[in-house]
Design a protein that fits this description.
It is built from 1 helix and 7 strands; from the N terminus they run αβββββββ. It is α+β, with helices and mostly antiparallel strands. It has a domain of 58 residues: SH3 type barrels (Roll). The strands form 2 sheets. A 4-stranded antiparallel β-sheet has the order 4-5-6-7, with no helix packed on it. A 3-stranded antiparallel β-sheet has the order 1-2-3, with no helix packed on it. The longest helix has 30 residues. The radius of gyration is 39 Å and the shape is flat. The relative contact order is 0.09.
Length: 172
């Protein structure tokens, strides 16, 4: 078998492996996210309407801060209206909410006095950043930086002041 045949055989096996993996993944995804079966229309039959239950909402101020799922036990971190965070395992009683019934990857189902409701993971509210205003000091005219002046070409140099202890300083 030549090197070119080995390479082509390797590429063929790799392509078959990728196609098989894609097929398995598509089947798994289809079973996990399959939409509910659409109702079929029957001629002449009208289904009686049933009143839908009003969805139960979580009491205001509670937030699901996080979820920790594991093989043995899972926990949820719930933030209360006062800002405190507490971890609760499955079937634990949450004061003010109810009992933790189910823990998913990004949500928790709680059974309260009015029925079951979901809390989804939500980010903590962040305050809007505002610029802190500080008093600024404006430079006074006497504190301006001194800029050296240019003298025209051929002009005599300006007199510079001499130190007070200079030997050739004129007496005043």
């Amino acid at each position: 078998m030549t090197a070119a045949q080995r390479i082509s055989l390797g590429l063929l096996l790799l392509a078959l492996l990728l196609l098989g993996g894609l097929s398995v993944w598509l089947r798994w995804a289809a079973t996990r996210w399959s939409p509910a079966a659409a109702p079929t229309a029957t001629a002449g039959v009208v289904a009686p309407s049933t009143p839908t239950a009003t969805p139960v909402h979580a009491p205001p101020g509670y937030r699901l801060a996080g979820v920790a799922t594991g093989n043995a036990e899972s926990f949820v971190a719930i933030e209360a209206p006062d800002g405190s965070h507490t971890l609760y395992p499955l079937d634990a009683a949450v004061p003010g909410l109810g009992t933790v019934v189910r823990i998913d990857d990004d949500r928790v189902v709680v059974r309260g006095p009015a029925g079951e409701f979901e809390l989804a993971v939500a980010p903590a509210p962040t305050p809007t950043p505002t610029r802190v205003r500080t008093a600024t000091r404006r430079p006074s005219p006497t504190r301006r930086a001194l800029r050296p002046t240019r003298r025209p070409a051929g002009a005599a140099p300006a007199r510079e002041s001499l130190p007070s202890n200079a030997p050739d300083r004129p007496a005043s």
